[in-house]
Amino acid sequence: FYEPVPTAGWSMAAVADENEFFAPARQALKIMAGISIIIILLVSLCVLWAIRRLLKPLSPMLDEVDALSQGDFGKRAAQIHTDDEIGALAKALYYMRDKVRNVLVSVCESTETLAASVEQINATTEQSVQASDQVAKSVSDIAVSATSQLKTLKNVEQSAVNLAERIHHISGRADGAVVKGKEAEKAVNAG
Question: Are 175 and 70 in contact (CB under 8 A)?
Answer without folding.
Answer: no
